[in-house]
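Re: How this chain folds, sequence and tokenised backbone to follow
Notation: Tokens come from a learned vocabulary of local backbone shapes, not from coordinates.
Start of record: The labelled sequence and token lines come straight after this line.
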Amino acid sequence: MTKKKTQDALALIARDVGGDRSFPARVEREKFNAQIARVIYQARTAAKLTQKQLADLVDTTQPVIARLEDADYEGHSLAMLRRIAAALDQRLEVRFVAPRRAKAG
């Protein structure tokens, strides 16, 4: 008997990671890094600044800003996020949010 092929991305991921209990935490960490990168990019572009211009405002270099805007970067610091927020005349908010519970099923 031949198994039916699926194109369901979630089903394929579940099949590939199987019982890897660390996988959901890794996915959340990657989503978090991507979200921070996106927020920095959107705030900078909304202010009509280049990476170099923002770097000058926060006393760093353009490659540092490029890294901060990279979804794969994991070295975000609260101090740097505060500096960026201040340079863009914005307020930085940090919240604790209850984790999403896995659906029973």
Summary: The CA atoms of residues 24 and 103 lie 13 Å apart.
